[in-house]
Design brief:
The protein is α+β, with helices and mostly antiparallel strands. The protein contains 8 helices and 15 strands. The strands form 2 sheets. Strands 7, 8, 9, 10, 11, 12, 13, 14 and 15 form a 9-stranded mixed beta sheet that branches. A 6-stranded antiparallel beta sheet has the order 2-1-6-5-3-4. It starts with a strand and ends with a helix.
Length: about 280
């Protein structure tokens, strides 16, 4: 069934949705994005995603084209019109269309705003949560402002494909001897009952799911340590896992061909996934 998408104030059949060939998102990756999960027809962590969107736009000196209330209304309408029970809503905002020039166009240039949905039945019951993921490591060769959620995703895409060629599900990127993050997720290990994940900075995305999971972990009296960790430390850990808006909490059971502990999902990751999904369903809008 064709989807209804949102483009610059209009709800359109996907076949009729177009943007300019001069759009700076297309020419320069001059754009930011967000992905919001839908569980039971309701939006997960909407306020967190809206706040991060506003920060990303501010870091790139872009205006906020839609208020939070307007954005929420658009997302809810798309969810209903596309019959999304479980799935994702993708949002992208660019600096707009202008003749190709490295310098930013006139500040009054209309921005491009696009949203669409993806249906993912059983999103919370992904089989990978029961078996765990295998990851392969690679050098982190991305630009230095990874805290801004831009659409510059070519290198993470290359890293993911390289990992798959090695028989892994995803890649963990490494810089100066320490893991930064996965291609589309934040990375964690568990050692002696302590959850370890890299501290916030320009090196990693400030994950909305990350923030929620760490808050829930602390509320559950789990100890959290925010610091870098090495690949070797991860391989010898008791557990490893990743978090993201679309995967929630997902165990990692193998790193560069070496099993983590006994090679099965650990109790901390399993419990955090249960808590996160349960609390997300309660708080969803």
């Amino acid at each position: 069934m064709p989807r209804t998408v949102y483009v610059n104030g209009e709800f359109l059949p996907e076949a009729e949705a177009t943007i300019s060939v001069f759009d700076r998102g297309f020419l320069f990756a001059d754009a930011v994005y967000e992905v919001v999960s839908v569980l039971g027809g309701r939006l997960v962590d909407f306020d967190g995603h809206a706040q991060r969107l506003e920060r990303s736009l501010s870091e790139l000196a872009m205006p906020v084209p839609l208020s939070r209330d307007a954005l929420l209304e658009v997302m809810r309408r798309l969810t209903v019109e596309n019959g999304i029970e479980d799935g994702l809503i993708y949002l992208q905002i660019t600096r707009g269309a202008a003749d190709r020039d490295f310098a930013y166009p006139d500040p009054d240039t209309p921005q491009t705003v696009v949203l669409f949905t993806q249906s993912k039945p059983g999103l919370a019951d992904a089989p990978a949560a029961r078996t765990g993921l295998k990851v392969a490591t690679c050098p982190d060769l991305r630009w230095g402002r990874r805290d801004i959620k831009t659409v510059q995703l070519l290198y993470p895409s290359m890293a993911k494909m390289a990992a798959r060629e090695q028989g892994a599900d995803d890649a963990w990127m490494v810089e100066d001897g320490a893991v930064t993050e996965g291609t589309s997720n934040n990375a964690y290990i568990v050692r002696g009952g302590v959850i370890v994940t890299r501290q916030l900075g320009s090196e990693i995305l400030h994950g909305i799911t990350r923030a929620a999971v760490l808050r829930l972990a602390r509320e559950a009296q789990m100890t959290v340590e925010e610091r870098p960790f090495t690949v070797e430390e991860a391989q010898s850990a008791d557990e490893a896992f990743v978090t993201s808006a679309s995967a929630f909490v997902m165990p990692v059971v193998e790193i560069d061909g070496r099993p983590v502990a006994d090679g099965t999902p650990g109790p901390v990751a399993r419990r955090l996934r249960e808590i996160y999904i349960e609390e997300s369903r309660k708080a969803a809008l």
